[in-house]
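Assess the record.
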Amino acid sequence: MLNGRRQVAYTPPARENIIRRKMANLEKFTNDNDKIDPLIKMAIMHYQFEAIHSFADRNGRTGRILLLLYLKLEKLLDIPAIYLSEYIIENKSNYYKYLREVTEKEKWENYILYMLDMIEVTSLNVINKLDSIIDLMDKIESKIRAEKPKLFTKELLEIIFKLPYTKRKNLIDAKLGTPKTVGNYLMELEKIGILKSRKVGKEKLYVNQQLMKTLEYTTKS
C-alpha cells in the first residue's frame, strides 16, 4: 500500500487489437515446430498468456487448463489428469514473485525452475496416489472375496472404483443384473463397510469412502 492506495504490480494490455495481436503471436509460438524443450516452452507459453491477461476474469484458471492441454498436445500426458493448481496455490507468493521478476527484470531462471518443479512434484504426487488406489483396490477385492465371495466380479470392482460414488444405473448399464439384483449388490457392499449410501434428491448414491479419502489427500513429496 502506498499513501493508503494499493500498489499496482502489473498493468496488462487493454486494447482489443493489441490483445488479439499478442494472442495470435502466442498461438504461433505454441504451434511452431521448433527445438525448444517442450517443458521450457510450456513455462514461456504460460507466462505469455498470463501477461496478456486476455479475459476480464479467470485468466489464472484458464492458463492452468492450457498447460494441461499443451502437455497433452506434446504427448507428455495421455489424459490431463494432474492437478497443477494445488502446487500454485500452495506456493502462490513465489509464483507471483517470479512472474513479476520476468516482467520487470527479464529474469527467467527462477520462474522456469518453479514451473519445472511444479510439473515434477505434481506428477510424483499423482503416481503416489495411483499406487494408493491400486493398493486399495487389492484390499477391497480381498475383503469382498473373503466376506461375500459370490458377489465378487472384476466388473463390479472396477465400477465402484470408476468414480468415488456409484448408483444402480451404473451396474445396470454394465449388464450386471436387473435393478433389484444390482440394488442387492450395492446393499451387500454397504453391509460390509465398503460403500456408504447417501440420498441425493430422489436418488440413492453409494459412496466408496476409502477411495474418496485417497482422492482428497495428496501425498506430499
